[in-house]
Amino acid sequence: MLAGAAGATAMNAVSYLDQAVRGDSATTSAAGSSVSKTAQHTTDAAGSVGSATENKRAEALGPLGGLGIGLGVGAVAGLVRGSNATPPKAVAAIATGLVAMAVGEGAAVATGAARSDWASPANLLRDLVPHLAYGAVTGWALHRMVDPRTSVVSRFRR
């Protein structure tokens, strides 16, 4: 989970750097505003104060869900890394990033906050790059924690 936390931090940094450079809204990553886009359309006709509070709560769920996904995928990656399965680092990093992206998209669909802005390759790339940063940093952190002296993880020593 610690490696997943490091990866989630890297993913957020890449996402926010992209946002700062482009001067645009957050990307649609799990830490982005997929839930807040849905929340913007949930105000009632009266525009009551309760609606604003509910919108703010819904906006918080995107980043919290993204963090939870990052920790969970990091934990699973740690289990895989600690087993006999030791893929090359690049393969593990890409796979971990793609799994995190798939889980995030699945969570968005399951909660009704599905994203629909992958219409262009640029938007897809804008979502893919932070997830690949997540995979790379998660893999690096796992490697440093499990066996920092070698490039291959041996079985757990007792």
Ordered list of secondary-structure elements with their pairings:
Elements: H1 2-22, H2 34-39, H3 49-82, H4 89-111, H5 121-146
Helix pairs in contact: 1-3, 1-5, 3-4, 3-5, 4-5
Number of contiguous helices:
5
**Uncertain regions: pLDDT < 50 for 5+ in a row?**
28-44
Count of discrete domains: 1
Strand content: under 5%
- Helix fraction, binned, reads 55-70%
- Please state the CA-atom Rg, rounded to the nearest Å: 18 Å
Largest sheet: none
Tally of extended strands?
Answer: 0
Distance between the termini: 22 Å
Could you state the order of secondary-structure elements as H and E?
Answer: HHHHH
Mean pLDDT: 78
The computed structural class is: mainly alpha
Name the overall outline.
Answer: globular
Structure description:
The chain is mostly helical and 158 residues long. The chain has one domain. It is 70% helix and 0% strand. It contains five helices and no strands. It starts with a helix and ends in a 12-residue tail after the last helix.
Question: Descriptors for this entry?
Answer:
158 residues, 5 helices, mainly alpha
How would you sum up this structure in a few lines?
The protein is mostly helical and 158 residues long.
